[in-house]
Amino acid sequence: MHDGGRSHGRKLSDAGVTARFYRAVGDARLAHIIKVDLTSEVFFYHIDEAALARARLLDGKLVLITNMPDHTPQAIVERYKALADIERGFRVLKSEIEIAPVYHRKPERIRAHALICFLALLLYRVLRMRLQAANSPYSPERALELARRIQFHRITLHHNQTASGLSTLTPEQLDLFDAINLPKPSTARL
């Protein structure tokens, strides 16, 4: 049993407090535990202790429901974890690799786009595995950030003379290439 309170600013009526609290309880999906009395003349709620005890039993647990009765529980959990890994991959594609949505109509373009996304994600995972194997302090995100700063420029002067240059690699960038066991960029390779 609790009495009504005040919000910042103006004083709320008991009905206003009740309505705001009831809405917050509903938004937090706690209505099965916190029971708000909407018929009372004053702000009043109580905790359903049995519902709270049931919620505590499941706290931190995930319930998987499936329509695959012929699979073992272990196989179902492995498939679920694989799904979570795939979803993580899509997040990486959108955020770290920055592949924006592209709209295609032709099947060959859709396949090509899917292949590019798949290869980008595969390279990202290889990068992550190499960084972990080398006990590198860099995350894949940091490694990509360091690599993005490397620039190569080629210019043409007077329609026939060309000049090119590669940005000077920082010690951090040099460490990165050592960690992932790749040759350092040089103008000789380009």
Describe this structure as you would to a colleague:
The chain is mainly alpha-helical. The chain folds into three domains: 14-58, no CATH class; 73-137, no CATH class; 144-189, no CATH class. It is built from six helices and four strands; from the N terminus they run αββααααββα. The strands form two sheets. A two-stranded antiparallel sheet has the order 1-2. A two-stranded antiparallel ribbon has the order 3-4. Helix 3 crosses helix 4. The longest helix is centred in the middle third of the chain and has 27 residues, at 107-133. The chain is elongated and about 90 Å long.
Summarize the helices and strands and which ones pair or pack:
Blueprint: H1 14-27, E1 34-36, E2 45-47, H2 49-58, H3 73-95, H4 107-133, H5 140-148, E3 152-157, E4 161-166, H6 171-179
Antiparallel strand pairs: 1-2, 3-4
Helix pairs in contact: 3-4
Percent in helix:
40-55%
As residue ranges, the low-confidence spans are: 1-9
How would you describe the shape? elongated
Structurally, how many domains make up the residues? 3
Number of helices: 6
What order do the SSEs take from the amino end to the carboxyl end, as H and E? HEEHHHHEEH
Structural class: mainly alpha
Largest sheet: 2 strands, antiparallel
Proportion of residues in extended strands: 5-15%
How far is it from the N-terminal to the C-terminal residue, by CA?
75 Å
Strand tally is 4
Determine Rg (CA atoms, Å): 29 Å
Q: Which strands sit side by side, in order, in the main sheet?
A: 1-2
Average predicted confidence as pLDDT: 83
